[in-house]
Design brief:
2 copies of one chain form a homodimer. Chain A has 187 residues and is mainly alpha-helical. Chain A contains 9 helices and no strands. The first copy, chain A, is elongated. The structure holds a DNA duplex (30 and 30 nucleotides).
Chain lengths: 187, 187
DNA sequence: ACACTAACTTACTAATAGGTAAGTTGTCAA
DNA sequence: TTGACAACTTACCTATTAGTAAGTTAGTGT
């Protein structure tokens, strides 16, 4: 993977978070990188190829965040929320989670990308479920039994919350975050 | 409001839920209605005009659902979830909540639409908060105090859940829904 | 000095987007 | 019968989109 390719992927990530995959263009990339549109096509022949590369990058950062958090020396019961917080921190202001953005465009994505988006979506929920299971085993979450349901609740709310934040401001996401804390500390 | 105008608005709603506001075109509408693109422009000169009309329609259906639920003879403690259920029922399969779709395109929307989307988003949260307050006053939700936070949690999760449903299937949204029920019945 | 290659640029195509101006058609009232 | 208006159609414009083919340039190994 060349430096330029990585640079293009990172910039594409930025555009996906701000505008979505369908709404950004090769020309947007070209202008910001100071090269021509055809120069981008040289690195990623079709837009779908670039999209798949971005998905692969998203997979990698997800697994990276996961292995980081497993090694960290914090209380196991805190890890679920730290995971969500780390993930949310990767989203810039006035943007949304890139996975959410890809889900929004899902119906019009090339098949190869749909497959990847499905995998990542599923994997993220699975990871949070595992962290919740660890937390429970460690003595937390006494009242909770349906940890898959809890993981689904937290993930969907976090993603939805980031989307609302764009419209209603930072204060709104703070409310959601406070609710998360209260929800997980009812032991 | 002519019949044709309403017909266009309803079809636009369908496209927004399936593809988003930016991704559907006047040509899509024209083909489905059996008239030409210019025929749509006759009724809604700019795409933004059509967008505002759709937003107004969304406002009306939201208020309609609200006044319906206030009059219904069901337990006050059940009304928050019935509200969410009624709202979710208005979303077809493999589509998302139209408000979510407009939030996703928010940054590229004309200013007049942004204002409307902000208002509707805020109003929906407010309505759910009121229903939760009524439920608490009626004896439910004993453990809960931050009802604004709870409303934010439920709304964001419902919206996020519908988006995940598109990718991971109906079973996923069911998990979220089950979590809602457990969450509100801890009295 | 020479050939090869990576990383481009220039110049193009076909399709689609939103939007407009001018003309057409059917209906209804005076 | 005639005029007027609503609801269109035809024909166009400009901008933007993804994508391609062919040519250029800078560096690298021999």
């Amino acid at each position: 993977m060349t430096k330029k390719k990585k640079q293009i992927i990172l910039l594409t990530m930025k555009f996906i978070k701000e505008k979505g995959f369908l709404a950004f263009s090769y020309d947007d990339l070209a202008k910001e990188l100071g090269i021509t549109k055809a120069g981008i096509h040289y690195h990623f022949e079709k837009k779908g190829d670039l999209g798949v590369a971005v998905c692969t990058y998203l997979e990698e950062t997800l697994e990276q965040t996961y292995s980081d958090i497993k090694q960290e020396t914090i209380k196991t019961t805190d890890k679920p929320l730290v995971f969500l917080s780390k993930r949310a921190a990767q989203v810039d202001r006035h943007a949304v989670c890139p996975i959410s953005a890809l889900q929004a465009d899902y119906n019009d994505l090339p098949g190869t990308m749909q497959e990847k988006v499905r995998q990542i979506s599923q994997r993220e929920v699975r990871i949070l479920t595992e962290l919740l299971e660890d937390a429970k085993q460690d003595g937390g979450l006494k009242a909770m039994d349906d940890l898959e349901g809890l993981a689904a609740l937290l993930i969907t709310s976090a993603k939805g919350g980031l989307q609302y934040q764009r419209v209603l401001g930072d204060a709104f996401f703070s409310k959601v975050w406070t609710a998360f804390n209260k929800l997980l500390k009812c032991d």
